[in-house]
Each structure stands twice: as C-alpha cells, then as structure tokens.
Amino acid sequence: MWRVFKAYLLYTWGGLHRYFGNLNNIPHEHERAVHYFTRAYNLNPAMHQARFARAVILWREMERVEEALADFDALLQQDSTYAPALLNRALVYQQIGKYEEALADLQTYLALPPGDQFRDVAQRLEPLLRDLTHDANTRL
Q1: CA 128 – CA 139 distance, rounded (Å)
Q2: pLDDT in tens, 21-47
C-alpha cells in the first residue's frame, strides 16, 4: 500500500515539475519531471499513467522521439488496448512521417469502445492519414 501511495506522490511531483517547466520554459524542470515519472513507474509498474506522462513529455516538450516511442511501445506490450498510448504513438508516427504505422495505430484506437474526448480528433485524422499513406504508396 505504501508503494502505491509513494508512487502517486512521485507522479504528482513530476506533474508539478512539468507544469512549471511549461509555464516558465525551463528545460531543467522537464528533466525533473521525467525523473519523477520514472521513479513513480519503477516503484509501481502498474501505474501506467506515470510511464505515459513520461512518454508524452519526452515527445512534446523535449523532442526525444525515440525514447517516447520506446515508452509507448512498452505500454502497448503490456496492454495493447491502452487507448492513450495508441493515439499518442499514432501522432508521433505521423510527425516523423511513418504514415502507415500512424494509420494502423489510429485504426486500432478507433476500433476500441468510445471512452475519451479525443475520439473526434482521431476520426478526423484517419482519412488524412489514409490519403497520405495512399499517396506515399502510389509514388513508389
């Protein structure tokens, strides 16, 4: 029980560092957030949101795409239906030009039961990715 509580506190502390890093544009705060998210996840591996938060900050704020993808991959190996990881990995793949992988993740995400506020974004993005994939394949 104590491990779960301590992991939650570390996760919360990481969130505060991320907030202050974003608010004041301080990269060191982002590094601290990654540190605390990592500690929270290591203390309680069932706390997927800590590893997910680390992946998101690595990708969005720190532009460390490969590390973020590794985290998303690990989360999806544990639970292939973890919707936040599927959607965000699709967005990372789209950003780096891996449109087929992005489309596959997005379609898997959309096949899941509706349950979050980003479904409409995913539904609008899918045809665009389909077109990009089709265009890339016709140029080959």
Answers
A1: 17
A2: 999 999 999 999 999 999 999 999 999
Count CA within 13 A, CB hemisphere, residue 110: 15
What's the rounded Cα separation, in Å, for the pair 89 and 73? Answer: 8
Whether the CB-CB separation of 74 and 108 falls below 8 Å is answered with no
Of 83, 20, 100, 87, the residue nearest 59 (C-alpha): 87
Q: Which of 36, 29, 34 is nearest to 12 (CA)?
A: 36
Q: For 96-114, write each residue's pLDDT tens digit.
A: 999 999 999 999 999 999 8
Question: Residues 6 or more apart from 1 whose CB is under 8 A from it?
Answer: none
